[in-house]
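Worked example 3 (structure in, sequence out).
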């Protein structure tokens, strides 16, 4: 029943968006801007580039609302658009540049969620910086799964990959993170699994 109420609520919200309700769109952007920005940053965009890609994401979402069928959660649908916009931005604007540049980009209070077994925000920041060093698809899968709480099915839809491919990205990403974090912390670190 609770899921049904949430679905009806989401449907009403989409209806308001389709009707051109500017307040609903402002609420939509406000609710999802952090997730969209995070997606763009984890795919290697600098802050200014991520802002541009995020703007393009919301524009594409607004234009594409009439095609939203409610088969996936609204947040999953938006992540898929953000992912596609960020990848397109990388293809168009940064073909010859390195995808991951050192940055203190994702270290904020939400980092503590992934570091459940770790003691401090500082350690969580180190973990997220280590995630940034992973190949972009592995990093995206790790962020979507651990930070955003998306299921493997949802991640597969967002990334337009098979479920087994997502599982492989998660496995390889965790294995590589263990190696990176062992160097950072000087010991074996459990990164989930």
């Amino acid at each position: 029943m609770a899921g049904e109420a949430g679905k009806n609520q989401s449907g009403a919200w989409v209806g308001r968006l389709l009707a051109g309700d500017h307040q609903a769109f402002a609420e939509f952007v406000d609710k999802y801007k952090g997730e969209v920005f995070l997606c763009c940053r984890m795919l290697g965009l600098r802050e200014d580039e991520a802002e541009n890609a995020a703007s393009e994401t919301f524009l594409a979402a607004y234009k594409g609302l009439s095609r939203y069928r409610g088969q996936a959660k609204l947040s999953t649908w938006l992540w898929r658009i953000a992912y596609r916009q960020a990848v397109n931005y990388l293809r168009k604007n940064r073909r010859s540049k390195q995808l991951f540049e050192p940055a203190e980009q994702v270290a904020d209070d939400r980092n503590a969620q992934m570091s459940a077994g770790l003691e401090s925000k500082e350690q969580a920041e180190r973990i997220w910086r280590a995630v940034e060093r992973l190949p972009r698809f592995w990093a995206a899968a790790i962020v979507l799964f651990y930070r955003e709480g998306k299921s493997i099915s949802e991640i597969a839809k967002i990334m337009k990959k098979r479920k087994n491919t997502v599982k492989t990205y998660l496995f390889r990403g965790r294995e590589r993170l263990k190696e990176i974090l062992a160097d950072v912390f000087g010991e074996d670190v459990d990164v989930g699994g």
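Notes: Residues 107-193 form a domain with the Arc Repressor Mutant, subunit A fold (CATH 1.10.10.10). DSSP finds eight helices and no strands in the chain.
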